[in-house]
Sequence to fold (695 residues):
Amino acid sequence: MAAAAVLAASFLGLAAIHAAYDGRTARAQARSPVLTQDRSKAVAMWAEDIDSTGTVPHNVYLVRPLRPDVPPPPGLSRWPKPGEVMMSPELAHAGDGVTTRYGHVAGTISPQGLASPSERLAYANPKTVPDKAEYPWFYISSYGTEGSPFVLAGADGSETQMVMTFAALTLVPALALAVIAVRVGSHGRDRRTHLIHALGGTWRHRAVLNMAEAAVPAASGTLLAGLIWAVGMAHDIRLPFTRYVVAAHDLRTHLPTAAGALAASLGSLLLLAVVLHRVTRKPSKRKTGTRPVVFDTRIPVWRHAGFVGGIVIIAFAQYLTGIIAVAAFVTGTVCLWVFLPSVAAQAAAALGRLIARRGRAAGKAGQLIGGRWTQTRPGVIVRLTTAMIIALGLMAQMQVWNSRHGESVRRAEATQGRIGDTVIAINGSHLTTGLLSRLDAAFPSGTHVILATDQPEDHTMLLQGSCPALSALNLRCTTIPTPDRQAVTNAGDLRMVDEIAAWYSPNVKVQKADLSHLHAGLDRSSLLAVTRERGHLTQVKQTVFQVVPTATVEELGGSLLIGAHNRERNNDWINLFGLAGLLFLLTAGAVSAGGEFARTRTSLAPLAVITGNRQVFGKVTFWHLTIPLLVCTAIAGLVTSVHSVFFVATVKEGTVTWASIAGGITVCAAVSLIIGTIAGRSSVKAAAQWRPTGD
Fold:
C-alpha cells in the first residue's frame, strides 16, 4: 500500500508539472501585449524591464494608457496612475526597498494576472515619460498573444527539463520501491506459483491470482495519494526548498489528467505484480527437465543488455548538444540505475559460487550455506542493493549539479566581497548627455556618475567624471587623461579602480570632465555610479527609475550572480526531487531488509539442530548478505564515479567531489555490515523458538 501511494504520488507529480506549466503559459500569454506600429490604433504605451531584489530577478512592466476607457491588463483592477505601481503579493513582501522603488504602491495583482501565485511582478506607471529619443516605448493595441516573446524572470526551465529531472530523481526511486514491495516476502507466493504451474495453470490464471492479491492494497494506496491532489485543488500549496506555489486553479482544471495518472499508476503496479511473479521452464543440462524457475534463482540476460545500453547512451551523450544531450544522458542514467543492481547481483552470485566451493573444501558450514544461498538466489541481492545503488547515484548527481559555478561567478562573488555596492553599473541603450547630468544631480549625496568609455585606438578605458566623482575613487582631479596609477591620491586605495579595470579593461586612464558637454563616444560607454560608502544600491535603483525607467542597475558582476541564483533555484528543484527520491529509496531498503530478515530467521532456524550450534547463523548471514552487499557497493562506487565524470563532460560544468562519493560508499558499506549483523541476531532469536512442523 505504501508503494502504491508513493508511485501514485509520483505519477501525480508529473501531472502537476504539466498543469502548472500549462496554466503559467496560458496566463503569461493572456497578459502579453500586442504591439502595433500604428499610433492611431494604440491603446497604451508599454515597455519591459527586469530588476531584482537581492539576487532574485523579477519583471517590471511599464505601462501608460492613452485612452480613459481602455481595460487594464489581466490581474489589475485599474491602470496605475503616474507615479503608482501595482505588485504581486510575493514581490511586495520581498524587502530590499522594492515597495518604494517604482513609486507609490496602489494595489496588488490578482492571481489571474500572475503566471503562478509565487511570481514576482510589478506594473509601474512612471511619473514622467522620457522622450522617445531617450527611451524606446512600444505602442500596444491589446493584450493576449500566442507564443509570447516576453520571458518570465527567474523561470525554472522548460517543462521537458522539469519532467526529465522529476522522472530521474523521483519516479525511478518510486518504481524501485514498487518493485521491491511487490517481490518482498515472496517465498510463499513463489511456492504457490510453482503449484499452479504444476497443476496446469497458465499465465492467465497466475495473473488473475496475483492481481487479485495486490488489488486491495494497491487501490488503497492509490486513493490515499489522490487525497494530495484533492487538498491541492482546495488550497494553493507552497513547496519546500523552492518556495514555489502550486495554484489550486491549475489542479482543478487538470482533474481529468490526475485521474488518468492515478489509473496509470494503479495499472503499472498491478502489471508489476504479474510480470515479477512469472515462471519459466528452464531445461536442465540434459535438456529433459521442466523444473520451473522464478526470478530469485535467475537474472534475465536482457537486464545485462539494458545496462550496457545505458552505458553506451551516456558515453555518446557528451557528443550531443542542447536538450538532446540532456535527454540522452537522463535516458542512459535511468537504464544504468535500473539494471546496475542486476549486474552487481550477478557478480555477487558468481562470487557466491566461489565462496561455497571454498567453504565445502574447508568444511565450514556457514561459508558453504551462505555461498550457496547467494549463488542460487541473486534476486535477493538485487532487491537489497537497488536502494543503495540508486541512492549513491542520486547523491553523486546532486553534488555535481550543485557544483556548476563557473569562474566568472566566483569572480563576481570576490568583487562583491571586496567592494560591495560602492561601484554600481547602469546599463541602458539610450545614453545621452542630458540623462547623465540629470542622474548626477538626482543621486543621493556622496554618489556620483562616472562614464567609462572604451578607447580602441590605445586599448584603454577612460574614466571621466567630476572632481568629487574622481575623489570617490581616490583619484586626483586632472584635466589631462592620466593613467590611474599616476593619478592616485595620498589615500592610496585603488580597490574600486582595480575592480573596474578587472571587469572592463586592464588599462585605465582618468580625466576630469563636464558630463553635460560630452558628445562623442557615448555609444562605446558604460555608466557607473560610485560612492565611498556601501549600502546605496537601493537608493540608486530608485533614483535611476525616476530618470531612465528601463535602465538595469546592478553591482559589478551582478548579472552573473543573478544567473547563479537562477541556477541555484534549479538546484532547489534538484534537491526537492532528489530528497524525495532518497526517502523512497530508504523506505525501499528498509522494506527489503525487513523481508530478508523474516525469511532468513525462519530458514536458518533448523540449522541449529543440524550443526549443533548457533554460531552458524552469523557466518551464514555474513557470507550471504554482508559480503555480496559489500561487493555490490564496490561495483556501484566504481560505476557512479565514472558516471559522474561523464556527467561533467556532458553538461560542460561542475566538478566531482571524490570525498562525497567516498562518504556515500562508506555509508553503504556500513549499512551492509548492519544488515548482516541484524539478520544474524534475528536468526538466533528465531532458533530458540523454532519447532519442527509438517510443512
